[in-house]
Write a structure and sequence with these properties.
The complex is a heterodimer of chains A (309) and B (276).
Chain A (H helix, E strand, L loop, with lengths): L1 H16 L6 H23 L8 H17 L4 H23 L4 H21 L9 E2 L5 E2 L3 E2 L3 H23 L2 H11 L1 H6 L4 H27 L1 E2 L6 H14 L6 H18 L6 H15 L3 H14 L1
Antiparallel strand pairs in A: 1-4, 2-3
Helix pairs in contact in A: 2-6, 2-9, 2-10, 2-11, 3-4, 3-5, 3-9, 4-9, 6-9, 7-9, 10-11, 10-13
Chain B lengths: L4 E12 L2 E7 L2 E3 L3 E5 L6 H8 L7 E6 L2 E2 L5 H7 L1 E3 L12 H10 L19 H10 L15 H14 L4 E5 L7 H14 L4 E5 L3 H7 L2 E6 L2 E6 L1 H6 L1 H8 L5 H24 L1
Parallel strand pairs in B: 4-9, 4-10, 7-8, 8-9
Antiparallel strand pairs in B: 1-2, 1-3, 1-5, 5-6, 10-11
Helix pairs in contact in B: 3-4, 3-5, 4-5, 5-6, 6-10
Classes of the chains: A mainly alpha (309), B alpha/beta (276).
InterPro entries (chain A): ABC_transp_permease, LivM-like
Organism (chain A): Marinobacterium halophilum
GO molecular function (chain A): branched-chain amino acid transmembrane transporter activity
Chain lengths: 309, 276
Amino acid sequence: MMKINKLYVALLLLAIVAPFFLYPVFLAKLLCFALFACAFNLMLGYVGLLSFGHAAFLGTGGYVTGWLMMNSGLTPELAILLGTVAAGALGAIYGKLSVKREGIYFAMVTLALSQLVFFVYLQAPFTGGEDGMQGVSRGHLFGVIDLADNINMYYFVLAIFLFGFWLIHRTIHSPFGQVLKAIRENEPRATSLGYNVNDYKWVAFTLSAALAGLAGSTKTLVFQLASLTDVHWHMSGEVVLMTLVGGVGTILGPVVGAGVIVTMQNYLSGGELGNYVHIIMGFIFVLCVLAFRSGIVGEFQKMWKRNFG
Amino acid sequence: MSADYVLETRNLIKEFKGFTAVDDVNLQVTRGHIHALIGPNGAGKTTVFNLLTKFLTPTSGQILFNDRDITAMKPAAIARAGVVRSFQISAVFPHLSVLENVRIALQRKEGNSFHFWRSQSVLNSLNDRAFELLESVGLGAFADAQTVDLSYGRKRALEIATTLALEPDLMLLDEPTQGMGHEDVGLVADLIKKVSAGRTILMVEHNLHVVSKLADRITVLQRGAILTEGDYATVSADPRVREAYMGTAASEEQDRANAAAAEAKDETVSKEGAEV
């Protein structure tokens, strides 16, 4: 336990000094995707359900926050809060419809529902369709701190990420998390102990959707842009990849996975290998599935256990 | 009269696409009894269990628990009402600790099972009670072990402790001794006897030796229907039961000899068990 705490402290220090060495907007993007992947992992890693529609929540959070920033004059923290609530509400509805299914059927239902959302945003006038919602202002945090400054923006994103990460950590290690674990381990037994397992999955799904929305809302503010990319099913696939690469069911795995994927996309797309990004990512995906099932963090944990445990 | 029955089924029928798995079963389980459900493979014993706990929905018929119609209730609600089942394959949470397994059952009544914002340390107040339950099934020493590392017999004991945590009126045990060595069979049988005090137990069991030792009343199922009912002496004397099990009555002599041999063997084993 102590060792873990030390690791967290070291990572936090790293995150605090990082913007003085790396481009803050890139770091903020990384944190947004890390939060998105953590939210997704709450479903895949801790409930055992693979959602193939989490982009819907990322995008909904983004569009709602973007629209509010452009049209309502709300301060950014309120716009983000409402974007999160909107994604959570959508998650609550979609969760009700999907948690009764399992395995591939759950993935298909979530995919279908998220495609529905995609086409709504494609057609709806307020999203800007193919062009996206451009020129979203970042505004002043609490009406005071100017977020147009990238360093300010970064620390705001870091605070949001830490809150989201803490909430997920807490959820996993809560009375609710214990029941989730029991359901994942042996669902019929959990039922026979009197738990309405679908209610628990539904709460987890709603929570996961809200946190994905939080990531999307924040991301819109960082890039001052909300676009169809965030609701496209590619995005739902990308978050699966991030989580798998980092390590499903480990708390830090999605963070590491998001870091690896986002960094790769960023550096490769700018360089000569730009056209091969998807091929390289596909290769990594295959490699992970074939050889490193537990992902980077999972494999590292195993190695640690073997050598020092 | 019917107040004596904890559980009653009336004309219970389950059909799967033209095949009748459970055919007009009228079962009465008397309060305080250990009631055994026996029958050859495919007789519909587990299907009856699944119907009673609503893991399957009956095609027609009624299920009464303490004179209350529970036919329309959901599985989790039936468990909360006091009918708790076990499964053929040991139903534990393998990657939780032994103590946590029992705690999950205790946790539900605490009303904090949806509290995702609280630390799980609030569950520590249940540890004493969970430990007591583990002690009662002889697992006190294993409280901190990972459940997956327990022997099969101990997993079954843990399952019983977890079930007891819910303080059920009626325990449904689906083949509690299946796949066990002689030693474990003896241990689990003794345990069932012990926990049956003040409760009603309905069990599916293949091991007739265990049935003869434990059951107050036996219902024999064949092809989904009740063949006969009664205490062990009555049921075992019924030639139809022997036929259902053995195919013909001709092998009766051989059969008796086998039973005697098995019994003798069992006794030596349980003596050894006592010494350990």
